[in-house]
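Bit of a strange request maybe. I'm writing a small parser for structure token strings and I need a real example to test against, not something I typed by hand. Could someone generate the tokens for this chain?
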Amino acid sequence: MSHWLMVCSSTKALVYDITPNTIHKHAPLVKEFNHPKSKLKTGELTSDDSGRGMRQDGNRTKYEPAHDAHDMEQLHFAQDLAEFLDHERKANHYQELTLCAAPHFHGVLNECLDKHVAHLITQHIQKDYIPLPGDQLQAVVDGIFHKTV
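Reply from user aminoacidic:
Good idea to test on real output. This should exercise your parser:
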């Protein structure tokens, strides 16, 4: 039974195979995702000024979108990750999932997950480990990996 670990933030996601009794010393990396647009400021994501409209009293008003562009980029990335996880579930590449994500992004991603993927999650970790240097991140992943072995 394969057990995957997804460690992610709104800009990057790493998927590891943390299957118990694996022959590896370190959890092998299955896939890496990068979403540099989530790092951009809202102003850098919008191309022009907001539209204008007319209020009932005849005065002009500026149209403000319900969500800013930065939030929308995070949502797009979460949707991409959710689609990947669902595709891999259907291909039977994993049967259990540990989800480790920055708290805000964890909620966004949870909203995007298919109900069948959500049922495979055995552990939720709401921490942002992505900014850690490579060796420290590997130590965190190995700690989670060795807890499942």
